[in-house]
Design goal:
By secondary structure, the chain is mainly α. The longest helix is centred in the N-terminal third of the chain and has 23 residues, at 40-62. It folds into 2 domains: 2-113, no CATH class; 134-261, Outer Surface Protein A, domain 3. The strands form 2 sheets. A 3-stranded antiparallel beta sheet has the order 2-3-4, with helices on both faces. Strands 1-5 form a two-stranded antiparallel sheet. It has helices spanning 2-5, 8-20, 26-35, 40-62, 64-70, 72-85, 100-106, 116-131, 171-178, 212-222, 227-233, 240-252; strands at 154-158, 163-167, 194-201, 204-209, 256-261.
C-alpha cells in the first residue's frame, strides 16, 4: 500500500475509490494522518459528501420526472447506490447516467414500478436529442428534382437528434404531467402501446406519439433503408396513398438533413 501511494496515479485512484466507498479504507486513512494533521475521516468525508451530492444532483437534473415519481429521499438513495456501482469514467458529465435507466428498473425500492424504467429511458433520449450535433434541415423542395421513378430508391438521412422509443406505458403523458407544477393523474390501466418520436426542432425538444405503421416506416428509414424497402418491410403496410401521407407528415417535422439514391433497389 505504501509503495502504491508513493506514485501519484496510485494515490489518485485510491482517493477516487475512497470518495465513493461507504467507509474509507483504513490504510488510506492512515496515510492521510501521516501526511497531515487532523482527523482523517472528517477530512475525507468533506470530499465524499461534496462528490456524492454533486453527482446525485447531476442525476436528478437528468431525470427530474423519475425523481418526482420516486420522491427525493428514494431517488437520492438510489443515486448514491448507482454512483458507487457506476462511477463516472470521464471528467465531462454531459453523457453520464445512461445506465441509470437499467439500474432503476432493478433497484429494490422501485422494481415494482413497471413504468419507471421507460420513463427514465424517455428522459435519457430527450437528453441525447438536446445534446446532439446540429445540422441544417433538408430543404424538401430538393425532392422535386428527383424523377418519379427514382423516388422509391431514396434513402432519407435523419437529423442527429432523432430518437425512437417503443413502450407499453404512456411515458409521454407521464413525463408531460410530471413536468407541470401541479401534475394530473395518468390512468395506467387505460394505457396502450406507445410509439414515440423524440427530436430537437430548432431549440425545442419535441416528443410525439406516432401510429405504429408510421413508426415502423421511420425506424426503417433511420436504419438506412430506402423508402421502397422500408415500406415493404413494415408489418402493417397500407396503400400507396397512406405511404405518401406518412412521408409528407414526417418530412414536415424537420426530421431529415439529406437524402441519397440507392441505385441497387
Amino acid at each position: 500500500m505504501r509503495q502504491l501511494m508513493s506514485q501519484l496515479r496510485g494515490y489518485q485512484d485510491a482517493f477516487k475509490s475512497n470518495l465513493l466507498n461507504e467507509k474509507p479504507d483504513r490504510d488510506f486513512l492512515d496515510l492521510l494522518v501521516e501526511q497531515s494533521a487532523g482527523d482523517a475521516p472528517a477530512r475525507i468525508n468533506i470530499y465524499r459528501n461534496n462528490v456524492l451530492h454533486s453527482l446525485s444532483c447531476a442525476l436528478g437534473d437528468l431525470y427530474p420526472v423519475v425523481k418526482r415519481l420516486t420522491g427525493d429521499r428514494c431517488f437520492d438513495a438510489a443515486a448514491v447506490s448507482y454512483l458507487r456501482e457506476h462511477p463516472p469514467e470521464h471528467a465531462a458529465l454531459v453523457f453520464y447516467g445512461e445506465s441509470f435507466v437499467d439500474f432503476i428498473s432493478t433497484y429494490p425500492a422501485c422494481s415494482q414500478l413497471g413504468y419507471l424504467a421507460d420513463t427514465a429511458r424517455l428522459e435519457w433520449l430527450c437528453h441525447v436529442a438536446r445534446n446532439a450535433a446540429d445540422s441544417e434541415y433538408l430543404d424538401v423542395s430538393r425532392l422535386a428534382e428527383i424523377p418519379g421513378e427514382k423516388l422509391g430508391t431514396l434513402g432519407l438521412i435523419p437529423h442527429p437528434s432523432v430518437q425512437l422509443l417503443e413502450s407499453r406505458w404512456p411515458v409521454d403523458d407521464i413525463q408531460m404531467e410530471n413536468l407541470k407544477a401541479e401534475p394530473g393523474i395518468v390512468d395506467l390501466d387505460k394505457s396502450t402501446e406507445r410509439y414515440l418520436l423524440i427530436w430537437r426542432d430548432a431549440l425545442n425538444i419535441r416528443v410525439i406519439a406516432l401510429e405504429e405503421s408510421c413508426y415502423q416506416l421511420l425506424r426503417s428509414l433511420i436504419l438506412g433503408h430506402s423508402i421502397e424497402t422500408s415500406w415493404q418491410q413494415i408489418s402493417c403496410q397500407g396503400s400507396a396513398d397512406e405511404l405518401t401521407s406518412m412521408l409528407g407528415y414526417l418530412l414536415g417535422l424537420h426530421l431529415f438533413i439529406d437524402f441519397n439514391i440507392q441505385e441497387d433497389q
